[in-house]
Amino acid sequence: MNSKMSIAAAVCAVIFGATAAQAEWKPTKPVEFVVTSGAGGGTDTFARTIQSIIAKNNLMEAPVVVVNKGGGSGAEGYVYGAGNAGNPYKLIFGTNNQYLLPYVAKLGYKPADMVPVASMALDEFLIWVNAEAPYKDIKDFVDAAKKPEGLKMGGSQSKDTDQTLVSIVQNATGAKFTYIPFKSGGEAAVQLAGAHIDANVNNPNENFGQWKAGMVRPLCVFSANRMAAGAKVAGDMSWSDIPTCKEGGLNVENYQMPRTVWLPAGVPDDAVKFFVDVLTKAQQTPEWKSYIERTSQTDRFLTGDEMRSFVKADEEKAVQVFKKEGWAVQ
Amino acid sequence: MRMFHGMVLSRFAMEIATGCVTALAGAIISYGATEFGTGWDDAGPQPGYFPFYIGLLIVLASLGVVAQAFTQHRRTGQVFLTGEQAGRIVAFAGPMVAFVALCVLLGLYVAMTVYLFAVMTIQGRFKIPLAALVSIGTAIAFYVVMEVWFQVPLLKGPVEAMLGIY
Amino acid sequence: MENFSNLMTGFSVALTTYHIAIMGAGVLLGILVGVLPGLGAPNGVSLLLPLTFTMDPISAIILLTSMYWGALFGGSTTSILFNIPGEPSSVATTFDGYPLARKGQATHALTLAFLSAGIGALFGVLVITGLSSWVAKFALKFSSPEYFAVYFLTFASFVGMGSASPFKTVVSMMLGFGFATVGMDTISGSLRLTYEIPDLIKGISFLIAVIGLFGIGELLLTMEEGLRFDGIRARVSPREVLKTIATLPRHWVTLLRSCLIGCWMGITPGGPTAASFMSYGLAKRFSRRGKEFGKGEPAGIVAPEAADHSAGTSAMLPMLALGIPGSATAAVMMGGLMIWGLTPGPMLFIERPDFVWGLIASMYIGNVVAVVLVLATVPLFASILRIPFSIIGPVIVVVCFIGAYTVNSGTFDLWLVLAFGLVGYVFKKLDYPIAPLVLAMVLGDKAEDAFRQSMIMARGSLAVFWSNGLVGTIMTIGVLLLLWPLLAAGISRVSGGFGRTPSIRLN
């Protein structure tokens, strides 16, 4: 596959003349956006938003094709990326699962099989409870969870971001949670609205509708600062009225999930630079701002070394938990 | 396909063979499941619990099939496949397998053109111009619909690269 | 009555020339993606999505949903003509649709499928209209034990009575469960049965299995028998369509039962696939012509089609009201809703009634438009069967492999289709039933997830499946259906055993 592709690239270069090779790298055929989640998932919306921004603002001449490869919690997409080493026409969209998945499952790729392009936003995590639940704040909640029977906490997937956070909270407080994995954050949201579980740690966007309708409410957000102010969501509450967990006395300061973009390892540096440019332009558009606002994410754009050091810190934090819980396979 | 002439595969033999293959599949499933714990802990069944017993059930039921073959199909003279039928199957499946191999090597478009053309001329006895028209036309029609209209990329090979398509 | 006046407002939104034109375009595009290999409703909808970014949300959702209806109808077409179901939910349609088409009654089969589907869809919209507020609350009662009970009920209603050897039924169904297990396990996060083969990480797609088992397997069987499609003269005439319409009232019991099952499964939400299988199973069990099922029995087409479409339409309600997408297509539409700046959830009904009721009204009109358009295409598609087999045979092969490739864009799947083709061929010749394998593959991992989630919630106690009235009732009905053949035998013995003697085989 790889050799075929590089032959193809070489042939293209010959056909289109040496002049193109001299100039900066530019895609000459459709670029594939590989989405490491199913259609409709958070990563899918992320990739398709970028696609629509690129199309609307003519940021790239070559057309974009979106391909969903969400099997195995996204591993399918990364394995595909690793198998396309040196091919600059495969842009891979994901989260922190790119570098965390290989720790908890034996997979056919290594994080180093891809080079980072950009981390475009940070998704927040909150503790949500059913609207009728008796807990007024996070302290009440943690106290209730310290009782011998503990509380039932739902989340998306197993040994993934949600369960990692739950076990961090558990270690920080000594509370006891029974973690129930569902297929998606959306399912966890509905189960909470129906009071089948006691809480979940969904991203803002996954519980937004239920909060607005007064079926669930947030207790606190795992962030150093409160979230950006916006319109009122439920009653007189807006996102910025949610206390941080630290304020509430829960000693877990920061837990966020990056929305990341990668290229297969071995692509020319010019190609990385080209896509960094395109994404930089994309994140300055009003469409991107409205995506960030609508999904209540934190607007933080990282590339190059900044992104590398973020990844390293995030990885270390998670690996500690994996080791402690005995999830690590390597 | 004269090579199968007169040969007969009995239903009894095929029942036994299939039973053995499914039993083997069951064993492989059970074996694969042992990696994850096949018991039942306080949080319910462990990851390997269901696959393990699924595999085991396949093995047991396959043995049942084999036993039933002895009681129901032995010496009944039932035929699974005659030589003539086998010939027809090979005449159809042979080109199909070659088509898949060709897909992997040359991509779907080239492979489908070659496959349709070959089957139409050799087996269908169509005239070469008509066969060429239909096979190339089909490939182009699929290309237009899949790649151009719906932007679903299909497998492509070196020929497309040479022509500078994708 | 409030719903009724809302609906009238909705009609005033939906019944504009522009919107009718959009519906027509959407339905035609949908039929095209439905018929084409490898393109299903989810692809179609996600490909159209970028086009809708600049549209008004109501027009956009009308376009997308119309495409969805079209694709559902188109998917039934390939099930009936080529034995290749385009969507999981149209698998059950192949059981009797394809044999009927092989008998030369392709027009009859297609027309019957489209009409029952249309009736199912309209029934679904009626339920949405009448019960929207009540139904939305009901879906919230569903948690993992209830989901498991629904899947159990589906298995129980489908697998009770059959003529195959019980051992073979077990082998077939358990293989299906085994294939469904391959890949990432939701509950533990571990990769099961992948044997360190990277291609197996994503699991074995149900579509790959179906293309091989049904499409290729059937072709092999056809070839071996020396039968050729060109021996079948599909009668193609508009009069045939009218004649079929006249036979429809005969199936009213099946239709009603199927629509009810469909709505129940769409709302709860067990999904269209479970609905079509359950409906087929029950139709077979309660029909006096039960033995004719699988050989081209018209009721065997009516039942799954009506249930599939009433489930498909009524599943829009949980999506709008709760933000639970009932299917992959609904998930993509939900993504669209968010991109247009709408939030699916209970507040949508209060904040944007024009959108919600405009959509519901468009579902009435859109489905009527779809039935009319799709009936008009029947002669066209039925005439495909007249092309000589040495052309259409290889073209079907190509279609199967294109379809297989597009599932995951991987060449591994092409070989897998060949392997499943061989399995399908051998299994059919040795009288292994294939439907249980497919059903287990579709619902197996969902049922396992639901079971294990329930166990975590209940700390390993099976009593959770009888812990409240709702789950207890569904489980009890399931158990009764499983034991039905035994019960029926007992009843007929008590009542003197006149009439047909039911088979007592439990498999």
From TrEMBL, chain A:
Alphabetical UniProt keywords: Signal
Family per record: Belongs to the UPF0065 (bug) family.
Matching CDD domains: PBP2_Bug_TTT (cd07012)
InterPro entries: BUG, Bug_dom1
Descriptive protein name: Tricarboxylate transporter
Keyword Signal: yes
Organism (species): Skermanella aerolata
Residues annotated as signal peptide: 1-23
Record carries keyword Signal: yes
Pfam families cross-referenced by the UniProt entry: TctC
TrEMBL record, chain B:
InterPro entries for this protein: DUF1468
Pfam family, one: TctB
Segments forming a coiled coil: none
Stretches assigned to the DUF1468 domain: 20-154
Residues spanning the membrane: 12-32, 52-70, 90-118, 130-150
Superkingdom in the source lineage: Bacteria
Keywords: Membrane, Transmembrane, Transmembrane helix
Protein name: DUF1468 domain-containing protein
UniProtKB/TrEMBL annotation, chain C:
Segments passing through the bilayer: 20-40, 47-69, 109-135, 147-164, 170-188, 200-221, 255-283, 319-343, 355-382, 389-408, 414-443, 464-487
Classification via Pfam families: TctA
Organism phylogeny: Bacteria, Pseudomonadati, Pseudomonadota, Alphaproteobacteria, Rhodospirillales
PANTHER family, per database record: BLR4373 PROTEIN, TRICARBOXYLIC TRANSPORT PROTEIN
Residue span, DUF112 domain: 21-439
Protein name as catalogued: Tricarboxylate transporter
Coiled-coil residue spans: none
InterPro entries per UniProt: DUF112_TM
Keywords: Membrane, Transmembrane, Transmembrane helix
